[in-house]
Structures are given as structure tokens and as C-alpha cells.
């Protein structure tokens, strides 16, 4: 897998590149800003670009801007945005529209090789990946909501994994359940929470559409 | 306006009314002298006509007294002197009664001088000069006609034709009865023309005056119009040839009696001014209790009918003038006309001569300097008290400005701290985590792997602590999206208990970060200490203020509350606790925002 990195902090970028190289992932470009990355991969795009969310000049959402720009210019490229902070609703901008191959990961989890590798591979495969801590924060914040209280513990686990972007098979594997059982849970969740999305209810196999529907439900509950 | 008003106590003579004291005595003296002169001039006639004598002496004396009094006023000096001249002229007019020597010839000129002096005297009142072109034209016309009239008489007639005896000095170089009749007819007409044009000129002046000034001028103008017209009409019989001396002097008596109306009207105007001054003083005293800087200014505005009036106080310790809010003002001139000339300023000093205040007034009050002065003197004690208040206000303002600078500097410092944590410590710790992961990946030793794993756990804990610190200082979201989104993240912690209604407008860095910190504190207090089940946060702009309200249904012990007012006050805002709705406590923060 060929990777490009955009990260303004020199010391973290260096450590990340060393880690990736050590575990056998090829780093083709190591840039200190989104603009530099976009310029340097223009002719030979990598499989996945890793982009820091907070970069100069405003340290707010430069990563999202660069990621959307990149996806527009190189359709099919995977983008993994990293953030040191969990409370970053601006990162949700990444998932606007119907994106493919987008991920959002906290930097804490980057230091865990298996999580990092899994995220890179899923993004490269066109999946949507969201850090479990981010999902937990969203689900926890709604924990006291009546509608979430109607879910069973198992259903809540399935909801979190859905939000993280796992397919039914992936969820089944993690929870040691059969695909059919997962499918039943998913249907129950959609019914109990009355989740809908543009163009009808998302099919169980369409995990990208599904995760977005779940995410927007989690974030939009105030507006209802 | 080259003078300075001094207040408390006010020992200056100008403050005593113009018709009492030394000036009044001097005026009375002048009146007596002129009356004596009139007595002498008209002596042959007075012996048989005591009533005419009383009327004439009173008229001459009265004229002289009013003239002398007016001559002491700054703006009425010219009018006063002219009236004094008029009174002497009228006295000399009675020389005609001697019916011999130079008297009869002089008498004609004296009568003409009398009318010219009071006519011009009224036209220059109260500004001290002939302001309009019509005024000047009339003055020239009057001078020419009034001077040539008596001349034409002695040039064309015998003294007997003009009511005098042959003992009178009467040059008569071109004696011609026909010509003399024509001269009489012509001047009879010219005197009427002069009287009518004078009334017209007076009427023309009125619309160009301000309200206060018209009130002052109107009675005098009416009186003078009456005098002018009556003079022209009573002069008619004199314009026949061969009238008797007695008849002539009777007309003079009537003209003199009518002339008294002018000084009486002037006295009435003076009284009016004086009463207005007293009323101003009384109202100032009423309007300025209890004293405040603003109240003194508003009282001055009201009593002087000038809503544009401005007042600045001298702050002695700062050695600068300050406005009613205590903010320093740079004044280019403290006394006299403002640049542009439409407005003027007057400096007020304390009894000790220290600067006290500067008043800026509209130009229309210039003719009413005495009224302005009366208001300032009456408001003197209030002004001094207000100056103390303004000084305290100025000191307070300095402290507040220093505190505000401190809060702004603190906001910038926080910003820098957050950036340092982000760029420095946190990235370094995260890099360390990645290095540990690399170490675990390259080693084959399970014990090293285990140690690296445990190090990573410790590292993540340290990172979490660091982040919660940064989050308290300043969330990245506040900088990018403002208060609303930043508060949204905070309220996620509390689930559905918090309702947000926050304006999308953006404000200055220190306002946003201070308000954010304060609202977080109020929120967590409401939820965690007061155990509220419903909290609503509302932030909106009302006029030029940012109003933030945190309302909750929690219970709190008396006197217990988050102390958030210090930082808010530093930004010129304030905090209110509102418990007017039962079961609900509202903390309201109001911050000024431009």
C-alpha cells in the first residue's frame, strides 16, 4: 500500500512515517501541509492520504478542506483524516454528500498499529471509517434520550459499530453473531429510531450509506 | 466671550443687577444733571408751564438714566451712549424757549439729533452694531434729512416766519417766502417718509431674529415705531409758516412725553431678561438635585433651551477634560468661538480659580450671555459636586481600562498557550506513542512488547489529561465556528437537558472566549451543583449589547453561585441573577459589543 502524509508537526510526522515504514507500508510523500501534499501527488496519486485536521494557519479544519479537495481531484483515492481531539464536529463535514473511502481517526489510535492498518485498508477499499471513540461520544451524549433508551444493550453495540462503518458481516465477526442476527438487529434499530435517509431506507449491505444515516441521526436529534 | 465665569461664591459686580448699586447711582446722577440742563434750557417756558416742565424733566432724566445704565452693559454700550446723547439733545432743544441768541437755531439741530440718536440707538439694540443693510441705509437717510431740515429753515426764512423773534441769531442768506413754504412742505413729507421707513426697517429685522432675541426687541421696536410716527405727525403743524412760539413748545412737550415710552420699553425688556435669569437659576437648582454629572448637563440643556449643549469636566489628577462617562476628551479651545464659528465655549472656574468645566453652546445663545452665566452660577455647587463625580468616574475608568487590557492580554495568552500545547507537548507525546508502536513492531522480545504496551497506556492517560486542560482553556471550535457550535459540544455532556439558542454572529476574541468560559461555568454549576433538570442557554444581541442568559430549574443555597462577574465587568459588562419567575433562576450576562 502506498501512503502520502500531510502533517504540520515535524516530530509526529517523522514518528508516523517511521512507524508506517517499519510495519511495511510504503510512504511516498511526507508533506507539512495540505497544499504541499496536493501539489506533490498530482502526477502519481497514492492509495491513501493521511491528513492532519488541525494545521496552520487557523488550526481548525484545514484537513477537511484538503481532504475534500483531494477526493474531488482524484476520485477513488482513500483519505484518512487525523485529529488529536475528539470534540471536532467540523470533521463531520468530511462525510457530507455520499463519500467513499473516507476515514476519521483520533491520533491516539494511530499509535496502535493494528487499528491504523485496519483503518487504512478499509478506506482504501472505499469504506467509511469513523473512530470508535468519536461514535461513543455521540452515542453517550444521546444516552439519556428516550429513543436510545428503547434500544437493548446489544442493539446499542450494533448501532455503534454501524456508525463506525462496519458491514453486517464485520459486525457479526466482532460480536460473534450470525449475519442474519445482525440483520435483524439493524432492522430493529432502524425501526425503533425511525431512521430514514435520502432515497429511502439504506439496505443492510450498503454500509457507507448506513453509517451516514446513523451519524446524521445522532447529530441531528436536537433539530427534531 | 473673552471672559471667564467664576462660581461659588460669586463676588463679581456683574452679578448684582444692573439697576442697583454703584452703576445705578452713577446713572441717577447723570439723569439729574441732564434734567438740570433741561431746566436751564427751557427756563423761560417752564415759569408758566409747570406740567410741561415736569413731563419734560422726567423724560430727559429718564432717558439719561436708561442710557447710562445701558452704557455699562457689554453689548448695549452703543445704545446706551446714543440714548445719553439723545437726552442731552432733547434738553438742548428747549433752548428755543429763550427766543434769542443762538438758541433757536441750535434747537432745530438738537431736535434732529434727538430723533437720529434714539432711532439708531434702537436699531443697534441689542447687538451693538447696525447688522443689516436696511438698518445702515436708514441711518444714512435719517442723518441727511434730519441735518438738512433745520439748515433749510434758517437759510430761507426770517426768524419771525419760524416762530422766533428778531433777537435770535438767524443768518437767513436767501430769504424767500415761496421757497420757504416749499421747504416746509418738502420736509413735512420727508419726516413722514422717515417715520414710515423706520417702522418698515424695524419690521424687517424681526423675522431674522431668534426666539429669545425677538422677545427682547419687540417691545422696544413697538415703542420706537410709535414715537417715530407720532413725531412725524406732531411735526406737521410746525411745518406751517408763522406759527407761534408757544405752539411750537407745546408740540415739543408732547413729543418729549411720547419719547419716554422708549426708555420704559427698554426697562421692561431689562426686567424680562432679569426675570428669565432668576427663573433659570431657580430651575437649575431644582433640576440638579440630586446631583449627577449627566443631570447637571441635562439641566443646563433644559434651562438654556439648547439640546446640543455639551459639558466637560476637568479631572485635576489626570489633568485632562473628561466627558460625563469619564472618558478623556482633547479640547482644542476652552473659551470663545469653536472652529467653524457656529458654536462657542465658555470656561467655568471654581472660586479658587481652578478649572472646573467647559460648556459648549449653540451660537443663538450668544446674545444671552447673562442668562448662560446665571445658569452656570446657579448650577455652581452642582457643577463642583459633579466634577468630583467625574473625577472619580475618570479614575474608575482608568482602572477599568487597565483591567480590560489585562483581560485582552489574557485572552491572547490563552490562545498562545493552546497553540503551544497543540504544537509542542501534545505532538511530542503522540510522536512518542508512534515510536513505542514502532519499537513494539520491530522487537521480537515479548517482554519489551509488553513494556511498550504499558508505556503506551500511560501515555494515552497523560494525553487525555493534557486535552482536558486545553479544552478548558479554549476549544478549537470556538475560534472557527463561534459560541454556538462550541457550546453545543459542551452541552453534549449533559444530554438533552440543555437547550441552546445562540446567535450565529461572531464577536471579538476576548468577548467570545470570556463569555464561553463564563457560560461553561454557569452551565456546569446549574447541572452539577444546582441539580437542574432543564437548562436553557440563550445568547442574543439586543441593541448594542450581547445578552447571554442561563435559566435553570435547579435549587441552590442562598448566596451560593459561581462568581463570574469579575471578568465580565472587565469588559464593561455586568451580571444579574433573576429569580422573578418561581422555580427558575436566570443568570444574565450583558456585554457591550460594537
TrEMBL record, chain A:
Any GO BP annotation: phosphorelay signal transduction system
Keyword Phosphoprotein: yes
Residue numbers bearing the 4-aspartylphosphate modification: 52
Keyword Phosphoprotein tagged: yes
Response regulatory domain span: 2-122
Domain HTH luxR-type: start-end pairs: 144-220
PANTHER family, A to Z: TRANSCRIPTIONAL REGULATORY PROTEIN NARL-RELATED, TWO-COMPONENT RESPONSE REGULATOR
Stated name of the protein: DNA-binding response regulator
From TrEMBL, chain B:
Gene Ontology, cellular component aspect: membrane
Stored Pfam families: HisKA_3 (PF07730)
The Signal transduction histidine kinase subgroup 3 dimerisation and phosphoacceptor domain, residue ranges: 413-477
Keywords: Kinase, Membrane, Transferase, Transmembrane, Transmembrane helix, Two-component regulatory system
InterPro entries given in the database record: HATPase_C_sf (IPR036890), Sensor_HK_TwoCompSys (IPR050482), Sig_transdc_His_kin_sub3_dim/P (IPR011712)
Keyword Lyase among record annotations: no
Gene Ontology molecular-function annotations: phosphorelay sensor kinase activity; protein dimerization activity
Transmembrane parts of this sequence: 27-46, 52-70, 82-100, 106-125, 137-156, 184-204, 216-234, 254-275
Official protein name in the record: Sensor histidine kinase
Species name: Actinomadura craniellae
